[in-house]
Amino acid sequence: MKAEGWLFSVMAAFFAVTGLVYGLWAREPAGKAILTVGFLMSALIALFWFVQHQRRGHGRPQDRKDAEIAETAGPIGFFPPRSGYPVLAAVAVTVFALGVVFALWLVVVGAVMLALAVFGFIFQYRDGA
Questions:
Q1: Distance between CA atoms of 63 and 59, rounded to whole angstroms?
Q2: Per-residue confidence (pLDDT) for residue 54, from 0 to 100
Q3: Three-state DSSP string of the chain
Q4: Assessment of whether the complete model's pTM goes beyond 0.70
Q5: 8 A C-beta contact, residue 49 and residue 8
Q6: Mean pLDDT by 10 residues, the chain (129 residues)
Q7: What is the rounded radius of gyration, in angstroms, for the C-alpha atoms of the chain?
Q8: How far apart are CA 85 and CA 81, in angstroms?
């Protein structure tokens, strides 16, 4: 997890430097916004990986230099067999996008549906069973 954290930290630094240079050089807001969002997303993912590394320690074989390939064999973790929430999320984003085009009340309906889908994703298998 430490390697992934460093990878996304380097990516965040790239977006930060590129965004600063682009912000000083160019005078249009779209590129600045895109590079800022790229920096923020990369930094968020890097922070997630560093926090996971701190919580779980150095137990993962991929984080040790003396690890053998055979140490990574075996079950990885729990993966849900099936879920209806991806379909609900897709429908919610579609309704939200149609609301932006046609009617603002559809935006509210789509946002509520999307919130329910995200809530379901998060808490569907909270106990790992």
A1: 8
A2: 83
A3: CHHHHHHHHHHHHHHHHHHHHHHHHCCCHHHHHHHHHHHHHHHHHHHHHHHHHHHHCCCCHHHCCCCCHHHHCCCCCCCCCCCCHHHHHHHHHHHHHHHHHCCHHHHHHHHHHHHHHHHHHHHCCCCCC
A4: no
A5: yes
A6: 87 96 91 95 93 76 79 76 90 96 95 95 74
A7: 20
A8: 12
